[in-house]
Specification:
By secondary structure, the protein is mainly beta. The protein has one domain. It contains one helix and six strands. The strands form two sheets. It has a four-stranded antiparallel sheet with strand order 1-4-5-6, with helices on one face. A two-stranded antiparallel sheet has the order 2-3. The longest helix is centred in the first third of the chain and has 9 residues. It is globular and about 30 Å long. The model has no long low-confidence stretch (mean pLDDT 92). The structure holds zinc ion. The site of zinc ion has 8 residues, from loops.
Amino acid sequence: MQEDRVERDFSARSEEEQQAFLQETWCDHCQEANLGMKNPQEYLYKGIVFIEGECNRCANVVLTELTDDDF
Ligand SMILES: [Zn+2]
């Protein structure tokens, strides 16, 4: 599953953008938005950019999928 992933540099984004992505999350486990994430990793998978991190509340994986508008 992982071979199609292309790592991207999350830290290359502006500080403002990084903060926004770290705060604007959706956690499937908590079923709650904007709990925030830590340890963000950004990658490209099948033409879609994902930012993956750990939920600040439950530490489960949270995924943010970037649409074209967010580039
Ligand atoms: Zn959570």
